[in-house]
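Deviations from the work plan: none for this task. Representative record:
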Amino acid sequence: MEEKQNMTNEQLEKMLRRHRSAATRSKFITYAFGIAAILLLAANLTPIAIVCLVLTFVFGYQLAKHSEALKKTLGSNVINDVLGEVFETVEYNPFGKISSISSAGMVFPFRYDKLRGSDYIKATYRGLNIELSDVELINAEEITDAEGNVDRSENTVFRGQWLICDFGKELSGEVHISGKSKKSYGVSISGNVKMENERFNRQFFVNAQNPQEAYYILTPHMMEYILTMSEKSGGTVYMSFLRGGKLHIAVQTGRDFFELGGGKVNIESLRNKFLGELHWFTSIIDELQLADTLYKKEASI
Amino acid sequence: MSGIICILIIIILIVFWCVSTVNGFRKKEIRVQEGLSGVEVALTKRYDMLTKMLDTAKGYMKHENELFTKVATLRRGMSVGELNAVKQQMDTLSDRLFAVAEGYPELRSSEAFAELQRGIRDAEEHLQAARRLYNTNVTAYNTAIAMFPAKLLAGSRQPKEFFAADETKREDVKMTF
């Protein structure tokens, strides 16, 4: 992680703008040379196409370098401060992701083969261990035609954030909650538990090895809370309460957290934006810990 | 000929519908029974925790004989009404026990008491979940046997009894000591 530099907000904004402009410029030139290389190859102008291809790689490298510098500057000068404000202890890796070991156990109503991610956070919040990361889940498919030709394709089935945290209670089985999505990705999904809240049933599938445990976790208040938070997220919400006392929450926001975005760079607005992004998850933990005795670790009533 | 085929198809469809409807009733009835046994298990757990709590408290509350004689009785195969009555007896007993325990700081600060308090809270939460699940299953069953035309096949099936709603129930798991 790049060392935090002592800069004023104006200097930092200037630096971020410079990195962003350089990255955008490199991206544009890379695409332009890439397209030119393809067109020149099609026109049988191979030597010029090769030159364009080489330039594509050169500017592609520049793009990666500027994007990395932008992420590091943002991480060390803005994100780390924001994380320090929210969490008690925190480790942040802008290029890290949730490991496949940690992600085991979460149940999605679709298949995926690859997990890509960034902005990995390992922290302690209100005494609970949490992991949070941007995640992209990819389903790789291989189709073999009658002549034996294999066609490989990759399809992003999930893009959003994934939180793993302790919730202090051990269950005898597992409880999975899936938001109903228009896209089924070829997998038929249904729940085996119907809750007494009809609005909740319309928006979520609930699967549990023991239906009573689904009712134990999903108190009337908790169902209303999940509905509210799901509406706020604007994406599909998936939750898994696992036997070992771990809770997984994944939200398909379709975007990454902690991104600079387009438009004017303003450090204070960025900080508020990042705090807001974290707040969605921390408020769920607050709710789990405080609003319902079920989630309290100790009997400090 | 085609008329006979149509009639046969209609008869087969009606038979199929009758079989699936009656099986649906049976499935829902089984779920109600499972829900009820879940309530019994949760109630037994709460009963055990309360009994242990009373045993622990006895050592500290020498002068509270009246409290220890009022123990609710729980047996297998009780009706919903009887289970409700037992639950209410337990509520009263635990309320009384915790109110009396207020006057015994030594008891309140003991490790065993704190452990049992956690256990009772957990049992309460499981009981609450079991009651909600049972009531949801009863709603599904009662609705199924009351709806026309499925109602015609319900025969002697009667609506099941609900567990009495008790909104204040969660309050006694938030005890302050």
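The CA atoms of residues 139 and 155 of chain A lie 5 Å apart.
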